[in-house]
Amino acid sequence: MKENDIRPRELHNRYLELSKKDADKVFSNVEWAELHCPACSSENHHESFVKDNFPYHECIDCESLFQSPRPPQNAFEAFYVDSESSNFWATEFFPKVAEVRREKIFAPRAQRVNSILSEKGLKNGTLIDVGAGYGVFLEEVSKVSPLDSFKAIEPSKSLAQTCRDKGYDVLEEVLESSEAWHETANVITCFEVIEHVHDPLYFVQGLRKLLAPGGIAIVSGLGVDGFDIQVLWEQSKAISPPHHLNFLSVKGLEKLFLSAGFKKVEVQTPGELDLDIVENYFKEFGDNSVLPRFVKKLFNKGPEAKANFQKFLKDNQFSSHTWIIAKA
Predict the structure, then answer these.
(1) What is the pLDDT tens value at each position of the chain, 328 positions in all?
(2) How far apart are CA 144 and CA 156, in angstroms?
(3) CATH for 3-327, among 3.40.50.150, 2.60.120.260, 3.90.1150.10, 3.40.190.170?
């Protein structure tokens, strides 16, 4: 898989441009508040950089990166409900890459989830996908998993209806208002959401409440320890406020999930695109003066050497694509 397969450069850049314009409209006249580290709650942090008028802080204790001071929750809700960038994503971006993402992301994701459940000995029960979107993951996981039922939590009215049209039981609520399904899931999945949420601890506590005793949460998101984030830092397209607010470290994620009431937490980084993302940044912008000499040499290596380096990142928790497997 290559970055351009799932994020075509022209579409992605247009989406980022629209996001900047929307942010100026929505967040300019609201009060922003300072945050402690959303992963470990530490007050020991400092500003690292400002991107598109959004300051980002580094936690000294767990090394997480997070946006602070932060606009209020209701401003983000307004941004997602009524913004040109969100509409562009739903009507232009995602439909054009939906089937490629099914093949490259959702089908392998379903296989990975099924392998995890097999390792944990879970062969029956209910899976709830939080932030189910178009329901593509549910379609794929239901093909390969021995679980009994598959459900969706999706706050978007149109996307919730899309999931219903595909035959899934849907709770059309934000996670924080999902009391009706508390303690009903044996498996919770939640992909690429945690970097967006206003209060990660409150969010993860909400995931925990959905699980029956002994249930498993499988969560993925962007992590600050990743090679592409560390090399590109504020130049990384992944750091795209106001969409991506939280880039939690492996250490920070472990602390966060334990604080939310999970008993056992495992963090993996199975990403495949870190080196490709950095190389694409160099190809697009031309000036590689900001890149370490070692990284420049990597670009000149053949496919096998690059694949071996990416495997090293995956195996040693140095990919920005992070998975958390947590037991209730």
Answers:
(1) 788 888 898 899 898 898 888 888 889 889 999 999 999 999 999 999 999 999 999 999 999 999 999 999 988 888 877 788 878 888 888 888 988 999 999 999 999 999 999 999 998 999 999 999 899 999 999 999 999 999 999 988 888 999 999 999 999 988 988 999 999 999 999 999 999 999 999 999 999 999 999 999 999 999 999 999 999 999 999 999 999 999 999 999 999 999 999 999 999 999 999 999 999 988 888 766 667 888 888 988 999 999 999 999 999 999 999 999 999 9
(2) 27
(3) 3.40.50.150
Alpha helices in 104-199 (DSSP H): 107-120, 136-144, 157-165
Structure tokens at 279: 């190389």
Sign of CA dihedral 153, 159, 161, 166: negative
Angle at 253 between CA 263 and CA 101, to 5 degrees: 110
Which of 46, 107, 75, 43 minimizes the C-alpha distance to 198? 75
Residue 252 near residue 37, CB atoms below 8 Å: yes
